[in-house]
Design goal:
alpha/beta, de novo design (two linked rop proteins), Rossmann fold, 9-stranded mixed sheet, 43% helix
Length: 406
């Protein structure tokens, strides 16, 4: 029997907020910019949001749009227009991913159907990539698997040798198919491979019922690294992490535990205490993480959270260069939390803090993602000196280019 959702009786508040806006920005300021960066088109967003009248209508609207896009993709494929088909399958996969995510009930029939749609469509994106993409299933514990999509960088300088590689960690609201847009990605044109993963509590692991524990995300990521270092196209000395939202926390834990990681970047900060995200923010965040960890009892979940690593302490073990990119109005992580976290870092550290910007950071996506790719490439190639510490506060009306930054 499906379990009731946390604080479901408060859904009317969520619904009324949605009615105040034409999109999700009223709940997640800046999210629209992120959706567009990841490959969703304005047409898709308009088709979804024009049908949304409340929280329960969200998954249905995303699922309907996904079905339309998949039909368009099949038509293009039948006509031999494979590039167009691949683009449409990608958009359909993103929409299916959003639809399933919004039902945090394991095994629910509609969720299962949309999961199948996500992987059915994304398999076509991989198939028609001309060998530039590869899917991999990696066992990290007996009977438990992490899932990876490897995006191969093109050869820029002759030869087909090993290249720097970025492990992309999705956040709580994302799946691996969501975080590396094969048609618009900042890492790949710079000569870096990208390996996007679903770890415990995410995407395909949720489909399997592989929930997150106190430390199995780090175990899963280490198993992914085990696989990466066997590849001829991966430079084992130049593996970095790019973690988004809750991935900014997991990236630190992974980098502190695995000496094969040479640089870490977190964006959309989740490096503070859990009180802000689980007790002060909208209930949806706690509900989602309870699902990711396999809990239905809120008290038991609170005990689980209390056992999780205290990030400022864990950060002492991170000796490699670390960049954090955040907004000073982030509703999930305050500037004070960021300062406490950074004080514990054991290696070179840099912060880009944007004035007036909330958690999603879509308003400045056009400048931060190229900057992050450049920073990681420089850090993997040349490192950062001992004692390196840089804080950039990007005031409203200015850009990163107006400041001295790494």
């Amino acid at each position: 029997m499906p379990k009731p959702q946390l604080r479901a009786e408060q859904g009317w508040i969520f619904d009324n907020f949605l009615m105040l806006s034409d999109n999700e920005d009223v709940l997640h300021p800046g999210i629209m910019g992120n959706r567009l960066e990841r490959g969703t088109k304005f047409e898709d967003l308009n088709a979804v949001y024009s049908k949304v009248s409340g929280r329960r209508s969200f998954p249905k609207a995303w699922g309907k749009r996904a079905a339309v896009l998949e039909g368009m993709a099949r038509d293009a494929e039948a006509r031999g227009r494979l590039y167009t088909a691949r683009q449409l399958y990608h958009r359909a996969a993103i929409c299916f991913g959003r639809a399933q995510h919004l039902i945090p009930v394991h095994g629910q029939a509609q969720k299962v159907e949309w999961f199948e749609g996500l992987y059915r469509c994304y398999d076509r994106v991989v198939e028609w990539s001309g060998g530039a993409m590869e899917s991999k299933t990696i066992e990290f514990a007996p009977g438990q698997y992490a899932y990876a999509t490897f995006h191969k960088a093109p050869d820029l300088n002759g030869g087909d040798g090993p290249k720097p590689t970025i492990i992309a960690l999705p956040g709580m609201d994302q799946v691996k198919e969501d975080v590396c847009n094969p048609f618009n990605n900042e890492f790949i044109p710079r000569g870096m491979n990208v390996c996007a993963i679903d770890g415990p509590g995410q995407g395909a692991c949720n489909r399997d019922g592989t929930w997150q524990t106190e430390n199995n995300y780090e175990q899963a990521a280490s198993a992914v690294v085990d696989w990466l270092v066997t590849r001829d196209d991966v430079d084992a000395d130049k593996i970095g992490i790019f973690g988004m939202s809750m991935g900014s926390r997991w990236g630190v834990l992974i980098g502190a535990a695995d000496p094969r990681i040479s640089a870490v970047c977190g964006q959309m900060a989740n490096v503070g205490s859990f009180d802000m995200i689980f007790e002060q923010a909208q209930p949806n965040f706690k509900r989602i993480f309870m699902y990711m960890a396999g809990y239905s009892d809120e008290g038991e979940f609170d005990e689980f959270v209390a056992r999780l690593a205290h990030l400022p302490d864990a950060a002492q073990g991170l000796k490699v260069p670390h960049l954090l990119v955040a907004g000073d109005m982030d509703e999930l992580c305050s500037p004070d939390d960021i300062a406490t976290f950074r004080a514990g870092l054991g290696g070179p550290t840099e912060l880009w803090l944007y004035e007036g910007v909330f958690h999603p950071m879509g308003e400045v996506a056009g400048q931060i993602y190229p900057g992050i790719a450049d920073w990681l490439l420089e850090s993997l190639t040349n490192g950062r000196p001992d004692g390196y510490e840089k804080t950039v506060y990007v005031e409203d009306g200015t850009t990163l280019a107006d400041y001295d930054h790494g």
